[in-house]
Amino acid sequence: MTDFRSGFACMVGRPNAGKSTLTNALVGQKVAITSERPQTTRHTIRGIVHRPDAQLVLVDTPGLHRPRTLLGERLNALVRDTLTEVDVVVFCLPADQKVGPGDRYIAAQLAQVSSPVIAVATKADLIGRGRLAEHLLAISQLGEFADIVPVSAVDGYQVEVLTDVIVGHLPPGPALYPDGELTDEPEVVMVAELVREAALEGVRDELPHSLAVVVDEIVAREGPTPMLDVRVNLYVERDSQKAIIIGKGGARLRDVGSEARRGIEALLGTRVFLDLHVKVAKDWQRDPKQLGRMGF
Ligand SMILES: Nc1nc2c(ncn2[C@@H]2O[C@H](COP(=O)(O)OP(=O)(O)OP(=O)(O)O)[C@@H](O)[C@H]2O)c(=O)[nH]1
Fold it and tell me: Do the record's keywords include Signal (predicted)?
Protein backbone atom coordinates (compact mmCIF):
# COMPACT_ATOMS: atom_id res chain seq x y z
CA MET A 1 0.00 0.00 0.00
CA THR A 2 1.56 3.27 -1.10
CA ASP A 3 -0.97 5.72 0.39
CA PHE A 4 -0.64 4.43 3.96
CA ARG A 5 -0.11 7.12 6.59
CA SER A 6 1.19 6.79 10.12
CA GLY A 7 2.20 9.05 12.95
CA PHE A 8 1.62 10.48 16.39
CA ALA A 9 -1.03 12.79 17.76
CA CYS A 10 -1.00 14.33 21.19
CA MET A 11 -4.02 15.38 23.25
CA VAL A 12 -3.74 18.56 25.26
CA GLY A 13 -6.26 20.56 27.23
CA ARG A 14 -7.00 21.69 30.72
CA PRO A 15 -7.87 19.12 33.39
CA ASN A 16 -11.24 17.45 32.81
CA ALA A 17 -11.38 18.64 29.20
CA GLY A 18 -12.28 15.11 28.07
CA LYS A 19 -8.90 14.02 26.68
CA SER A 20 -8.93 10.48 28.05
CA THR A 21 -12.53 9.88 27.06
CA LEU A 22 -11.85 11.16 23.55
CA THR A 23 -8.75 8.96 23.27
CA ASN A 24 -10.93 5.97 24.17
CA ALA A 25 -13.59 6.96 21.65
CA LEU A 26 -11.03 7.30 18.86
CA VAL A 27 -9.37 3.97 19.66
CA GLY A 28 -12.78 2.33 19.98
CA GLN A 29 -11.87 0.55 23.18
CA LYS A 30 -11.28 1.74 26.68
CA VAL A 31 -7.59 2.04 27.36
CA ALA A 32 -7.16 5.11 29.50
CA ILE A 33 -8.67 5.44 32.93
CA THR A 34 -11.26 8.23 33.12
CA SER A 35 -12.79 9.68 36.21
CA GLU A 36 -14.73 12.65 37.51
CA ARG A 37 -11.67 13.86 39.37
CA PRO A 38 -9.32 16.16 37.48
CA GLN A 39 -5.71 15.22 36.79
CA THR A 40 -6.12 11.47 36.85
CA THR A 41 -3.88 11.10 33.81
CA ARG A 42 -0.42 11.08 35.30
CA HIS A 43 1.33 9.13 32.58
CA THR A 44 1.70 9.58 28.91
CA ILE A 45 -0.71 7.03 27.56
CA ARG A 46 -0.88 5.77 24.02
CA GLY A 47 -3.87 4.39 22.27
CA ILE A 48 -3.47 3.09 18.73
CA VAL A 49 -6.05 3.53 15.98
CA HIS A 50 -5.67 0.87 13.27
CA ARG A 51 -7.30 1.65 9.94
CA PRO A 52 -6.91 0.09 6.50
CA ASP A 53 -5.33 3.35 5.28
CA ALA A 54 -3.54 4.60 8.38
CA GLN A 55 -2.19 4.00 11.84
CA LEU A 56 -2.59 6.74 14.39
CA VAL A 57 -0.75 6.61 17.72
CA LEU A 58 -2.39 8.79 20.35
CA VAL A 59 -0.34 10.24 23.16
CA ASP A 60 -2.34 11.49 26.10
CA THR A 61 -0.34 14.03 28.10
CA PRO A 62 -0.88 15.14 31.71
CA GLY A 63 -2.10 18.50 30.43
CA LEU A 64 -0.39 21.83 30.38
CA HIS A 65 -0.76 23.74 33.58
CA ARG A 66 0.47 27.15 34.57
CA PRO A 67 3.81 26.53 36.26
CA ARG A 68 3.87 27.52 39.92
CA THR A 69 7.03 25.63 40.77
CA LEU A 70 10.21 24.66 39.06
CA LEU A 71 8.84 21.14 38.76
CA GLY A 72 5.83 22.60 36.98
CA GLU A 73 8.12 24.41 34.58
CA ARG A 74 10.12 21.28 33.89
CA LEU A 75 6.92 19.37 33.33
CA ASN A 76 5.71 21.97 30.89
CA ALA A 77 9.03 21.90 29.06
CA LEU A 78 8.61 18.15 28.79
CA VAL A 79 5.12 18.57 27.44
CA ARG A 80 6.33 21.14 24.90
CA ASP A 81 9.04 18.72 23.75
CA THR A 82 6.43 16.03 23.27
CA LEU A 83 4.29 18.45 21.33
CA THR A 84 7.10 19.31 18.97
CA GLU A 85 7.81 15.63 18.29
CA VAL A 86 4.29 14.65 17.32
CA ASP A 87 2.76 15.08 13.86
CA VAL A 88 -0.38 16.78 15.07
CA VAL A 89 -1.67 18.23 18.33
CA VAL A 90 -5.31 17.86 19.38
CA PHE A 91 -6.34 20.72 21.66
CA CYS A 92 -9.49 19.86 23.66
CA LEU A 93 -11.80 22.65 24.81
CA PRO A 94 -14.90 21.43 26.67
CA ALA A 95 -18.05 22.91 25.17
CA ASP A 96 -19.87 23.05 28.51
CA GLN A 97 -17.39 25.63 29.77
CA LYS A 98 -16.43 29.06 28.47
CA VAL A 99 -12.99 29.52 26.96
CA GLY A 100 -10.96 30.74 29.93
CA PRO A 101 -7.49 31.75 31.14
CA GLY A 102 -6.36 28.10 31.34
CA ASP A 103 -7.22 27.58 27.66
CA ARG A 104 -5.53 30.86 26.70
CA TYR A 105 -2.37 29.78 28.52
CA ILE A 106 -2.29 26.50 26.58
CA ALA A 107 -3.04 28.30 23.30
CA ALA A 108 -0.07 30.60 23.93
CA GLN A 109 2.18 27.57 24.49
CA LEU A 110 0.87 25.91 21.34
CA ALA A 111 1.66 29.03 19.32
CA GLN A 112 5.35 28.18 19.91
CA VAL A 113 4.97 24.62 18.62
CA SER A 114 5.57 23.86 14.96
CA SER A 115 3.16 20.90 14.67
CA PRO A 116 -0.32 21.62 13.26
CA VAL A 117 -2.97 22.04 15.98
CA ILE A 118 -6.55 20.79 15.63
CA ALA A 119 -8.90 22.48 18.08
CA VAL A 120 -11.67 20.19 19.30
CA ALA A 121 -14.82 21.33 21.05
CA THR A 122 -15.37 18.32 23.32
CA LYS A 123 -18.59 17.29 25.14
CA ALA A 124 -20.75 18.84 22.38
CA ASP A 125 -23.67 16.71 23.62
CA LEU A 126 -23.93 18.87 26.75
CA ILE A 127 -25.03 22.09 25.01
CA GLY A 128 -27.41 23.29 22.32
CA ARG A 129 -26.53 24.38 18.79
CA GLY A 130 -26.54 28.08 19.61
CA ARG A 131 -24.08 27.71 22.47
CA LEU A 132 -21.92 25.38 20.36
CA ALA A 133 -21.69 28.00 17.60
CA GLU A 134 -20.60 30.60 20.19
CA HIS A 135 -18.02 28.16 21.57
CA LEU A 136 -16.59 27.45 18.10
CA LEU A 137 -16.35 31.19 17.45
CA ALA A 138 -14.52 31.73 20.75
CA ILE A 139 -12.11 28.93 19.84
CA SER A 140 -11.41 30.43 16.42
CA GLN A 141 -10.40 33.68 18.15
CA LEU A 142 -7.95 31.86 20.39
CA GLY A 143 -5.26 31.12 17.83
CA GLU A 144 -4.33 29.71 14.45
CA PHE A 145 -5.78 26.22 14.14
CA ALA A 146 -5.44 23.79 11.24
CA ASP A 147 -9.05 22.71 11.88
CA ILE A 148 -11.79 23.19 14.44
CA VAL A 149 -14.00 20.14 15.06
CA PRO A 150 -16.88 19.73 17.53
CA VAL A 151 -17.23 16.18 18.92
CA SER A 152 -18.95 14.15 21.59
CA ALA A 153 -17.06 11.14 22.85
CA VAL A 154 -20.18 10.04 24.72
CA ASP A 155 -22.67 9.83 21.82
CA GLY A 156 -20.05 9.44 19.08
CA TYR A 157 -20.94 12.69 17.29
CA GLN A 158 -18.21 13.52 14.73
CA VAL A 159 -15.68 11.05 16.19
CA GLU A 160 -15.17 9.51 12.72
CA VAL A 161 -14.82 12.96 11.19
CA LEU A 162 -12.16 13.87 13.74
CA THR A 163 -10.24 10.66 13.00
CA ASP A 164 -10.25 11.55 9.28
CA VAL A 165 -9.05 15.08 10.02
CA ILE A 166 -6.22 13.85 12.28
CA VAL A 167 -5.15 11.17 9.78
CA GLY A 168 -5.08 13.88 7.10
CA HIS A 169 -2.21 15.52 8.98
CA LEU A 170 -0.09 12.37 9.25
CA PRO A 171 2.84 11.82 6.89
CA PRO A 172 2.95 8.85 4.50
CA GLY A 173 4.64 5.87 6.15
CA PRO A 174 4.23 2.26 7.25
CA ALA A 175 2.46 1.11 10.43
CA LEU A 176 4.58 1.69 13.54
CA TYR A 177 3.05 -0.98 15.76
CA PRO A 178 1.72 -4.48 15.00
CA ASP A 179 -2.00 -4.70 14.33
CA GLY A 180 -4.16 -5.35 17.36
CA GLU A 181 -1.86 -3.60 19.78
CA LEU A 182 -3.97 -1.14 21.73
CA THR A 183 -1.70 0.48 24.19
CA ASP A 184 1.60 0.25 26.01
CA GLU A 185 0.51 2.41 28.88
CA PRO A 186 2.21 1.62 32.19
CA GLU A 187 -1.05 0.58 33.90
CA VAL A 188 -1.56 -2.26 31.43
CA VAL A 189 1.97 -3.53 31.95
CA MET A 190 1.48 -3.36 35.72
CA VAL A 191 -1.88 -5.15 35.61
CA ALA A 192 -0.22 -7.98 33.65
CA GLU A 193 2.60 -8.08 36.17
CA LEU A 194 0.20 -8.32 39.13
CA VAL A 195 -1.61 -11.25 37.52
CA ARG A 196 1.69 -12.93 36.67
CA GLU A 197 2.95 -12.60 40.23
CA ALA A 198 -0.24 -14.05 41.68
CA ALA A 199 -0.28 -16.90 39.17
CA LEU A 200 3.33 -17.87 39.95
CA GLU A 201 2.92 -17.76 43.71
CA GLY A 202 3.99 -21.11 45.14
CA VAL A 203 4.46 -22.75 41.73
CA ARG A 204 7.34 -20.72 40.35
CA ASP A 205 9.53 -23.83 40.01
CA GLU A 206 6.90 -25.71 38.06
CA LEU A 207 6.32 -22.92 35.55
CA PRO A 208 9.78 -21.62 34.70
CA HIS A 209 9.42 -18.88 32.11
CA SER A 210 6.46 -20.69 30.62
CA LEU A 211 3.84 -18.16 31.58
CA ALA A 212 2.94 -15.13 29.45
CA VAL A 213 0.27 -12.75 30.68
CA VAL A 214 -1.53 -10.50 28.21
CA VAL A 215 -4.15 -7.92 29.15
CA ASP A 216 -6.89 -8.29 26.56
CA GLU A 217 -9.00 -5.28 27.52
CA ILE A 218 -9.85 -2.85 30.29
CA VAL A 219 -13.38 -1.54 29.87
CA ALA A 220 -15.30 0.81 32.13
CA ARG A 221 -18.66 -0.69 33.05
CA GLU A 222 -21.75 1.48 32.57
CA GLY A 223 -23.51 2.21 35.84
CA PRO A 224 -23.71 4.43 38.91
CA THR A 225 -20.60 3.03 40.66
CA PRO A 226 -17.23 3.20 38.88
CA MET A 227 -16.09 -0.30 37.91
CA LEU A 228 -13.67 -1.72 35.38
CA ASP A 229 -13.94 -5.01 33.56
CA VAL A 230 -10.40 -6.33 33.18
CA ARG A 231 -9.95 -9.29 30.85
CA VAL A 232 -6.62 -11.10 30.97
CA ASN A 233 -5.22 -14.10 29.07
CA LEU A 234 -2.62 -16.37 30.66
CA TYR A 235 -0.64 -18.38 28.12
CA VAL A 236 1.23 -21.54 29.12
CA GLU A 237 3.02 -24.06 26.95
CA ARG A 238 1.51 -27.36 28.07
CA ASP A 239 -1.77 -28.82 29.32
CA SER A 240 -0.02 -29.91 32.53
CA GLN A 241 0.89 -26.27 33.23
CA LYS A 242 -2.66 -25.16 32.55
CA ALA A 243 -3.83 -27.71 35.15
CA ILE A 244 -1.39 -26.30 37.70
CA ILE A 245 -2.63 -22.73 37.23
CA ILE A 246 -6.30 -23.67 37.35
CA GLY A 247 -6.03 -26.12 40.26
CA LYS A 248 -8.58 -28.63 41.48
CA GLY A 249 -12.05 -27.53 40.43
CA GLY A 250 -10.64 -24.12 39.52
CA ALA A 251 -9.81 -23.36 43.16
CA ARG A 252 -6.31 -22.10 42.52
CA LEU A 253 -7.35 -19.81 39.66
CA ARG A 254 -9.98 -18.26 41.93
CA ASP A 255 -7.29 -17.51 44.52
CA VAL A 256 -5.03 -16.09 41.83
CA GLY A 257 -7.94 -13.93 40.69
CA SER A 258 -8.78 -12.47 44.10
CA GLU A 259 -5.11 -11.90 44.96
CA ALA A 260 -4.47 -10.10 41.65
CA ARG A 261 -7.73 -8.19 41.85
CA ARG A 262 -6.79 -6.67 45.22
CA GLY A 263 -3.54 -5.39 43.73
CA ILE A 264 -5.20 -4.09 40.57
CA GLU A 265 -7.91 -2.28 42.55
CA ALA A 266 -5.23 -0.61 44.66
CA LEU A 267 -3.29 0.32 41.53
CA LEU A 268 -6.22 1.74 39.57
CA GLY A 269 -8.15 3.13 42.53
CA THR A 270 -11.44 1.64 41.44
CA ARG A 271 -13.44 -1.57 41.77
CA VAL A 272 -12.46 -4.23 39.29
CA PHE A 273 -14.10 -7.31 37.84
CA LEU A 274 -11.18 -9.53 36.83
CA ASP A 275 -11.80 -12.14 34.14
CA LEU A 276 -8.92 -14.62 33.77
CA HIS A 277 -8.56 -17.05 30.86
CA VAL A 278 -5.88 -19.74 30.75
CA LYS A 279 -4.81 -20.88 27.29
CA VAL A 280 -2.26 -23.33 25.99
CA ALA A 281 -0.06 -21.85 23.29
CA LYS A 282 2.31 -24.67 22.42
CA ASP A 283 5.96 -23.60 22.38
CA TRP A 284 5.03 -19.91 22.37
CA GLN A 285 8.59 -18.98 23.28
CA ARG A 286 9.91 -20.36 20.02
CA ASP A 287 7.15 -19.09 17.75
CA PRO A 288 7.75 -15.52 16.54
CA LYS A 289 4.13 -15.10 15.46
CA GLN A 290 2.83 -16.04 18.90
CA LEU A 291 5.46 -13.93 20.59
CA GLY A 292 4.31 -10.95 18.55
CA ARG A 293 0.70 -11.51 19.60
CA MET A 294 1.81 -11.55 23.20
CA GLY A 295 3.62 -8.28 22.88
CA PHE A 296 7.20 -9.55 22.94
N1 LIG B 1 -21.27 14.50 28.42
C2 LIG B 1 -20.02 14.23 28.09
N3 LIG B 1 -19.10 14.05 29.08
C4 LIG B 1 -17.84 13.79 28.73
C5 LIG B 1 -17.41 13.71 27.37
N6 LIG B 1 -16.09 13.46 27.35
C7 LIG B 1 -15.69 13.38 28.66
N8 LIG B 1 -16.75 13.58 29.49
C9 LIG B 1 -16.70 13.56 30.97
O10 LIG B 1 -15.83 14.57 31.43
C11 LIG B 1 -15.07 14.12 32.56
C12 LIG B 1 -13.58 14.27 32.29
O13 LIG B 1 -13.21 13.45 31.21
P14 LIG B 1 -11.73 12.88 31.04
O15 LIG B 1 -11.69 12.20 29.73
O16 LIG B 1 -11.32 12.14 32.26
O17 LIG B 1 -10.91 14.25 30.97
P18 LIG B 1 -9.33 14.48 30.85
O19 LIG B 1 -9.15 15.69 30.04
O20 LIG B 1 -8.66 13.24 30.39
O21 LIG B 1 -8.98 14.77 32.33
P22 LIG B 1 -7.54 14.79 33.08
O23 LIG B 1 -7.12 13.36 33.14
O24 LIG B 1 -7.89 15.36 34.39
O25 LIG B 1 -6.63 15.67 32.29
C26 LIG B 1 -15.49 12.69 32.79
O27 LIG B 1 -16.44 12.67 33.82
C28 LIG B 1 -16.11 12.27 31.48
O29 LIG B 1 -17.10 11.30 31.64
C30 LIG B 1 -18.41 13.92 26.34
O31 LIG B 1 -18.17 13.86 25.13
N32 LIG B 1 -19.68 14.17 26.77
Answer: no
